[in-house]
């Protein structure tokens, strides 16, 4: 479905919201403007490429009179798409309002059939709580499980990229689960309770796809859409795994914690860090705390044993495990 031209047109709008420097998606959107050709698009892209905020730079771009009206409609649509507190389905409807007249002209020969496919996308996106997850899932095709033979006949040399949802019910000898960083898995906007546990169940699905070897990975640093470097910590789900159940391997390949499932499990529990309160009861909702990386924040809730949810002034809501988080009570 996502290989159809009209579906790619729609997805391009969502992708530039997630990554405003996505030149391929911008190229697709801008070429839909009447009387705009590749040379004009390249001039616009050069402006966006050097801007700290490509969406703002586009709004300031001066179009020619012949395509100014449609260009203004495009920039207004993008502005409305960036407004806060919108569900992905609402953003789809905004894009469709702009795109439909363009769509009818471009695909007038089989418009009804293509329109039904866009309706299917509307149904799909309604099942997502945030746009990032939808874009991530559409970036990868589901694994081919039709039984068709591999072209070169060497099945062992294949690398399959899949979302967790697409991998349900499938198994492989070796599985790598990537991106297990704090704030990304679970997503930083995940609410304590059922949403949090649903994210945990998704990780369980991913981990149980492996028959022999499982690697759980996280980046130590991310490059954000606004071109800033952001240091990362591992997902709280990984920090909950007992130390005797895994090997920890650094980037260079060195095993820094040579632990396996055969490691004796009757070891005494690790001593809590002296800077961390030993009981959740020492925290209370509304209490001001400080974290070495996230800075100042306020305790929002105590979602579970040894966990505290903190709404940080500059980094939003985070759920921290008290065995690992270095929190200082400041008021």
Which structural class best describes the helix and strand composition? alpha+beta
Largest sheet report: 5 strands, antiparallel
Give the integer mean of the pLDDT values.
79
CATH architecture of the largest domain: Orthogonal Bundle
Assign a percent range to the helix content.
25-40%
Instruction: Sketch the topology as an H/E string, one letter per element.
Output: HHHHHHHHHEHEEEHEEEEEEE
CATH topology description of the largest domain = PCRA, domain 4
What is the number of helices? 11
The neighbouring-strand order within the major sheet is: 10-9-8-7-11
Low-confidence blocks of residues: 141-153, 252-280
N-to-C CA distance: 54 Å
Q: Can you say what the CATH homologous superfamily of the largest domain is?
A: PCRA, domain 4
Total number of strands = 11
Instruction: Return the domain count.
Output: 3
Text of the CATH class of the largest domain? Mainly Alpha
Rg from C-alpha positions?
24 Å
Keywords, please?
single chain; 331 residues; alpha+beta; PCRA, domain 4; Rossmann fold; SH3 type barrels; 3 domains; five-stranded antiparallel beta sheet; 11 helices; 11 strands
Question: How would you characterize this protein structure?
Answer:
The protein folds into 3 domains: 5-138, PCRA, domain 4 (Orthogonal Bundle), CATH 1.10.486.10; 160-263, P-loop containing nucleotide triphosphate hydrolases (Rossmann fold, 3-Layer(aba) Sandwich); 272-331, SH3 type barrels. Helix content is 36%, strand content 16%. It is built from 11 helices and 11 strands. It has helices at residues 5-18, 23-30, 38-49, 54-60, 68-81, 88-106, 111-125, 131-138, 164-167, 194-207, 236-239, and strands at 172-177, 210-216, 221-223, 229-231, 248-249, 255-257, 288-291, 295-304, 307-312, 316-321, 327-329. The strands form 4 sheets. The chain has a 5-stranded antiparallel beta sheet, with no helix packed on it. α6 packs antiparallel against α7. The longest helix is centred in the first third of the chain and has 19 residues, at 88-106. It is globular, with a radius of gyration of 24 Å. 19% of the residues are buried. The model is unreliable at 141-153 and 252-280 (pLDDT under 50).
